[in-house]
Amino acid sequence: MYQMYRSQDSSSIHAAHVNEVHLVPMNVIIRPIPSVLDMNKVQSLMETIRSNPDSEDVPPIDVLWIKGREGGNYFYSFGGCHRYEAYKRLNLSSIPCKLVPSTIQDLEVYLGGSTPDLL
Helices 39-51 and 81-89 sit at what angle, rounded to 10 degrees? Predict the structure, then answer.
């Protein structure tokens, strides 16, 4: 699927049981909620990433991995907005992620009636 490596113990409650970190293409990650950003924090993260791109100094973001009813893969991210923005502004093609196997019902917790019909 995506390039994978093992993570040290810097995990959220959602991804505490997930040890694998995948380099997921930025263009497949869906972020349906606009971020409110502290640009100083984004800039600091950019400097850290730029100085050592292979370092684990910046924790991976959590991504809900949902399989659609016809087999499509959907990748939703709600947290990690500063990290995501830093990778985006650096024009990097992928971002370290912990893929959290999820369901459409899990997605509904975040999106309610705005949850799309995933194929």
Answer: 60
Side chain identity, residue 105: Q
User: In whole angstroms, what is the distance from residue 114 CA to residue 33 CA?
Assistant: 11
Q: Express each pLDDT in 38-77 by its tens digit.
A: 999 999 999 999 998 877 899 999 999 999 888 899 999 9
SS percent in the chain: helix, strand, coil, step 5: 30, 25, 45
Amino acid at 107: L
Pair 21, 98: CB distance under 8 Å: yes
Look at the block and give the residue holding tokens 């502004």: 89
Question: What's the predicted TM-score (pTM) here?
Answer: 0.84
Write down the pLDDT at residue 36: 96
> What is the DSSP annotation of 60-105?
PEEEEEEE-TTS-EEEE--S-HHHHHHHHHTT-SEEEEEEEEE-HH
Are 49 and 74 spatial neighbours (Cβ–Cβ below 8 Å)? no
